[in-house]
Design brief:
The complex is a heterodimer of chains A (169) and B (328). Chain A is built from 5 helices and 5 strands, in the order E-E-H-E-E-E-H-H-H-H. Chain A has 169 residues and is of the alpha+beta class. Chain A folds into 2 domains: 73 residues, Roll (Ubiquitin-like (UB roll)), CATH 3.10.20.30; 82 residues, DNA polymerase, domain 1 (Orthogonal Bundle). In chain A, helix 2 crosses helix 5. Chain A is globular and about 45 Å long. Chain B has 328 residues and is of the alpha+beta class. Among the domains of chain B are: 47 residues, Uridine Diphospho-n-acetylenolpyruvylglucosamine Reductase, domain 2, CATH 3.30.43; 104 residues, 2-Layer Sandwich (Enolase-like, domain 1), CATH 3.30.390.50. Helices cover 32% and strands 20% of the residues of chain B. In chain B, strand 11 and strand 12 form a beta hairpin. In chain B, helix 12 runs antiparallel to helix 13. The longest helix of chain B has 18 residues. Classes of the chains: A alpha+beta (169), B alpha+beta (328).
C-alpha cells in the first residue's frame, strides 16, 4: 500500500483512522495543507487527488491507496518559481492571514480544469450547454467550499480571473 | 475515533461476503460517516470500502438511465445524459455541499447520509432519540429552524439533508439493492422511513444490504425539470426548503407534473396533492400557488420553522412558473 504525493512514493499508515490530512501534516511533515474545522466545513485542507479537489480531513489515508496526491508543496516549479496562481494571489491581495490560502489555491487550480472541461455549476443557466464563460458568479459558486475568515474573497476571485485570462506571469 | 477494521471491496459480491463475515458499515466517500465517527456519534466495528466498486452511468434497455452507486456526485452531475434528460437531478447534485465534497461523495452514500440536526450532532450535550433511542428530543422546543413540517413525530423532527434524493423522489427513481438474500428493487420514495417511535431506524434496508445503483425512467416532464434550493447563504449550506419539479404542458394544459420538496421531512417529500391539483389545469401562477397551498395545508409547524410554509409555497410557484415559461 502506497500513495504518491507530489511525485514521490510514501507508505500508507497501518491505522485506518489516520486521515489523509493527518498523514500529510503529522507523519510526513507536509504542513502546507492546513487543518481548519476538521469536519468538512471550511476547505482549508483541500488537496488534489487524481486530478479532483477533495477534503483531506474527511479522506481516510487508506482510501488514497494507489492514488496521486498533489498538495500546495507541489505547485511551484522545480526551480522554485511560483505557480501563476500563487503569484496572482500575491498581486491581488488574495489573502491576509494566509491560513486558507493553500486550500484556496489547490481548489482553484482543480476548479479551472473543471471549467475548461465545460462542467456546469448550480448557477449555470443552461446545464446542457454548460458554463458560458467564467463569470464572477460562476467563480464564486465554484469556490464556495473554501471559506476565508479574513474576507479576502474579492481578491481571490480576481486572482482566479487573472489565471483564467492567461495573463498571469 | 474508535478503532475499526478496514477492508476494501472490489466487487459487490465481495462486499456482501465481507459484511456477512464481520458486520460493519459500507463506506463511500466518507464525507458524512468519517465525520460522525470522528465525533463518536457513530462507531462501527468495521468499514467495508465500496467506493472502488465499478460505477458506471449507462442507458438501460427500456430507454432509461442507470447510475452506479459508487459514481461520485460530481461525475453524475456533469454527465451529458443527466444534464439533458434529467436536469433536476444534475442541478440538485450541484446544489449540494461544495465541489470538493461532491468529488468525494458517492450516489449510494448520498442516499444514506444522516440528518444534520444539530442536536443529533451534539453527542455530549443534547438528547436525541435518533442517536440514543429513548433519550428524548431537544429539537422539539429548541432551535428548530431547520426541522420538519411534514411527517414528524413526538420523538423526532429531523429532516433528511440530501438534495439529490429530492430530485430522485420527483423522478420516481428505483434503488437497486443487493443483500444476503439476493437482489431487489426499492422505489426511492419507499426507502426512507418517517420517524414514528423509532427515529433511529431511517430506511427499510436490512443489515448487510448494499445499494448498487439507481435507475431512472425518461419522460417529457423529467427533461423539462429543475431544482431550486433556498438556504441561509447562497451556496454551501443545507436547505431550508428545496423544490424539485418537472412539467409537461401541451395545448395550454398541464399533461404531466412532478414535484418533491426537500428540507421539510425525514424523507424527500413527494407533493402528490399539489400534482393532483395541477393535472389538466392551465399553467398560471395563481394555479401553482393554489396547488402549493393544497399540499401545505397538511403542514405542522413549530416555533422556529413556520416560515417554511410560505417559503415552500412561493418556491413551488416560482419553479413551476420557470418551467412553464410564465411570469413569476
Amino acid at each position: 500500500m502506497a500513495i504518491v504525493i507530489n511525485g514521490m512514493d510514501y507508505p500508507l499508515p497501518d491505522d485506518p483512522r489516520v486521515s489523509l490530512l493527518d498523514l500529510l501534516r503529522e507523519q510526513l511533515h507536509l504542513t502546507g495543507t492546513k487543518l481548519g474545522c476538521n469536519q468538512g466545513g471550511c476547505g482549508a485542507c483541500t488537496v488534489i487527488v487524481d486530478g479532483a479537489r477533495v477534503l483531506s480531513c474527511l479522506t481516510l489515508a487508506v482510501q488514497a491507496d494507489g492514488r496521486e496526491v498533489r498538495t500546495i508543496e507541489g505547485m511551484a516549479a522545480p526551480d522554485g518559481g511560483l505557480h501563476p496562481l500563487q503569484q496572482a494571489f500575491i498581486e491581488h491581495d488574495g489573502f491576509q492571514c494566509g491560513y486558507c490560502t493553500p486550500g484556496q489555491i489547490c481548489s482553484a487550480i482543480a476548479m479551472v480544469a473543471e471549467l475548461r472541461r465545460g462542467e456546469p455549476s448550480y448557477v449555470t443557466a443552461d446545464l446542457a450547454e454548460g458554463p458560458q464563460g467564467a463569470t464572477r458568479q460562476e467563480i464564486r459558486e465554484r469556490m464556495s467550499g473554501n471559506l476565508c475568515r479574513c474576507g479576502a474573497h474579492n481578491g481571490i476571485v480576481e486572482a482566479i480571473e487573472e489565471l483564467l485570462s492567461g495573463e498571469a506571469p | 475515533m474508535r478503532p475499526f477494521d478496514y477492508r476494501c471491496a472490489t466487487s459487490p459480491t465481495e462486499a456482501l461476503s465481507i459484511a456477512g463475515a464481520q458486520p460493519g458499515r459500507y463506506l463511500g466517500g466518507g464525507t458524512n460517516l468519517v465525520d460522525l465517527m470522528r465525533q463518536n456519534i457513530d462507531a462501527p466495528a468495521a468499514l467495508i470500502d465500496v467506493s472502488r466498486l465499478p460505477g458506471i452511468i449507462e442507458d438501460t434497455p427500456t430507454g432509461g438511465l442507470s447510475i452506479g452507486a459508487s459514481v461520485r456526485n460530481s461525475v453524475a452531475a456533469a454527465h451529458p445524459s443527466v444534464r439533458s434528460r434529467f436536469p433536476m437531478l444534475s442541478r440538485a447534485l450541484l446544489a449540494g455541499a461544495s465541489a470538493q465534497i461532491r468529488n468525494m461523495a458517492t450516489i449510494g452514500g448520498n442516499i444514506l447520509q444522516r440528518t444534520r440536526c444539530p442536536y443529533f450532532f451534539d453527542a455530549t450535550g443534547s438528547r436525541c432519540n435518533k442517536r440514543e433511542p429513548g433519550s428524548g428530543c431537544d429539537a422539539i422546543g429548541g432551535f428548530n429552524r431547520y426541522h420538519a413540517i411534514f411527517g414528524a413525530s413526538e420523538h423526532c423532527i429531523a429532516t433528511h439533508p440530501s438534495d439529490m434524493c429530492v430530485a430522485l423522489a420527483a423522478l420516481n427513481a428505483t434503488v437497486q439493492v443487493a443483500g444476503p438474500g439476493g437482489e431487489r428493487d426499492v422505489p426511492l420514495l419507499d426507502l426512507h422511513r418517517l420517524p414514528g417511535d423509532r427515529p433511529d431506524i431511517e430506511t427499510i434496508l436490512q443489515p448487510g444490504e448494499l445499494i448498487t445503483a439507481i435507475a431512472l425512467s425518461p419522460s417529457a416532464a423529467a427533461a423539462n425539470s429543475t431544482y431550486r434550493k433556498v438556504r441561509d447563504r447562497s451556496s454551501y449550506a443545507f436547505a431550508l426548503i428545496s423544490v424539485a419539479a418537472g412539467l409537461e404542458v401541451a395545448a395550454g394544459r398541464i399533461v404531466d407534473v412532478t414535484i418533491a420538496l426537500g428540507g421539510v421531512a425525514a424523507k424527500p417529500w413527494r407533493a402528490l396533492r399539489a400534482e393532483q391539483n395541477l393535472r389538466g389545469a392551465a399553467p398560471t401562477k395563481e394555479r401553482f400557488l393554489a396547488a402549493a397551498d393544497a399540499e401545505l395545508a397538511a403542514a405542522k409547524t413549530l416555533d422556529g420553522n413556520a416560515f417554511k410554509v410560505e417559503f415552500a409555497r412561493r418556491t413551488v410557484a416560482a419553479v413551476l412558473c420557470e418551467l412553464a415559461g410564465v411570469e413569476p
